[in-house]
Amino acid sequence: MDTKRPTKLEFAVQMTCESCAVAVRAALESKPGVKTVSVDLGKEEVMVESALTSAEVQALIESTGRRAVLKGIGGSERDLGAAVAMMAGVGAVQGVVRFLQLSEDRCLVDGTIDGLEPGPHGLHVHTLGDLTQDCLSCGEHFNPFGRQHGGPGNSERHVGDLGNVVAGTDGRASFRLEDSQLKVWDVIGRSLVVDGGEDDLGKGGNPLSKQTGNSGARLACGIIARSAGLFQNSKQICACDGVTLWEERDRPIAGKGRSKTGTETPAANL
Ligand code: ZN
């Protein structure tokens, strides 16, 4: 896993004057982890090349008092595919996790999950994109090679084993990782699940360690759906339910209250 390699993030930022653009630029430039910043006032767009997570860059932009919406994420190389999972589940747990295939053996996973108990939580791609019984119908960890459960750094692991994400005291896990086994084209149509407890990465000695990492109940899940890459999403973040970019910013990212009509939008339509 290499979290240092910069990735391009494209944000829509509400900017009305040159001083706004200057303030946004100042909030980003020379910050640790930020490599390049490009601000287009006319298009209200900010492009940031950075090793930070998208949530961290968004917080820097919004520290200027302006709202920002992530429009796209791209690698330094040719993009081979992108996907997104809108996660919803038990209680207040919800999140958005993006996948971007940077090369044949590098898949970037960038996400934010809210409403978690502080501490580590297992994160796995599961075999089935089936939410008919909520997260229980997602099947087991995606395991096309018939291996035992492990950690993302092990060769003996399920392809879907992404290890743990860690929630802070505010209940938010904001993360960015790269994985060598996961491929965007293999996981589209499957599901992503976050668990209630820590994944022991196969080393816990529990009967479940070599099967699931013994990481507890499934808290939230979402179908992994193909998504726009960088520059491909000029107007809306989400074309499915018709909300505009700025409406989107103030809506729950998943779950109840998501759609205009009050009915829930199936994640598969995203
Ligand atoms: Zn596993």
Description:
- The chain is mainly β.
- It folds into 2 domains: 7-74, Alpha-Beta Plaits (2-Layer Sandwich), CATH 3.30.70; 82-226, Immunoglobulin-like (Sandwich), CATH 2.60.40.200.
- The chain contains 4 helices and 13 strands.
- The protein has helices spanning 18-28, 54-62, 184-187, 245-249, and strands spanning 7-13, 34-40, 45-50, 68-74, 82-89, 94-103, 106-114, 119-126, 132-135, 161-167, 173-179, 191-195, 218-226.
- The strands form 2 sheets. An 8-stranded antiparallel β-sheet has the order 10-8-12-13-5-6-7-11, with helices on one face. A 4-stranded antiparallel β-sheet has the order 2-3-1-4.
- A hairpin with a 2-residue loop joins strand 6 and strand 7.
- Helix 1 crosses helix 2 (54-62).
- The two termini are 28 Å apart.
The amount of helix comes to 10-25%
Oligomer: single chain
Distance between the termini: 28 Å
Bound molecule types: zinc ion
Principal-axis shape: elongated
Count of domains: 2
CATH first level of the largest domain: which class?
A: Mainly Beta
Summarize the structure.
The chain has 270 residues and is mainly beta. Helix content is 11%, strand content 35%. The structure holds zinc ion.
SSE order and pairing:
Elements: E1 7-13, H1 18-28, E2 34-40, E3 45-50, H2 54-62, E4 68-74, E5 82-89, E6 94-103, E7 106-114, E8 119-126, E9 132-135, E10 161-167, E11 173-179, H3 184-187, E12 191-195, E13 218-226, H4 245-249
Antiparallel strand pairs: 1-3, 1-4, 2-3, 5-6, 5-13, 6-7, 7-11, 8-10, 8-12, 12-13
Helix pairs in contact: 1-2
Bound molecules: zinc ion (ZN).
